[in-house]
Amino acid sequence: MSVLLEVNGLSKAFGGVRAVNQVSFNVAAGELLALIGPNGAGKSTCFNMLNGQLRPDGGSIRLGGREIVGLAPREVWRLGVGRTFQITAT
User: What is the pTM of this model?
Assistant: First the structure.
């Protein structure tokens, strides 16, 4: 399978707190990947970097071979990366 999403050395710190430290993974077309961990592990920060809400301090995010770090969230969305939020109450 061809790699659709490539994340290499993704990092983000808030002051002295390193929320994401050198995270790397690949996702192939048709593949499902889970990002799990306890509260405060950096999952949301990682997703916010993937969709353009936060700019990483280091690393790269390539979608279909194209670097997307630095693109506005609307530009990332137009490339096909979206986000939904969990609804905990109705």
Answer: 0.89
Rounded CA-CA distance 79/77 in Å is 5
Residues 6+ positions from 32 with CB-CB distance below 8 Å? none
CB within 8 Å of 31: residues ≥ 6 apart: 1, 4
For the stretch 43-85, pLDDT in tens is 999 999 999 999 999 999 999 999 999 999 999 999 999 888 8
Q: How many other CB atoms sit within 10 Å of the CB of residue 29?
A: 10
Residue 43 contacts residue 50 (beta carbons within 8 Å): no
Q: Which of 54, 69, 53, 55 is nearest to 7 (CA)?
A: 69
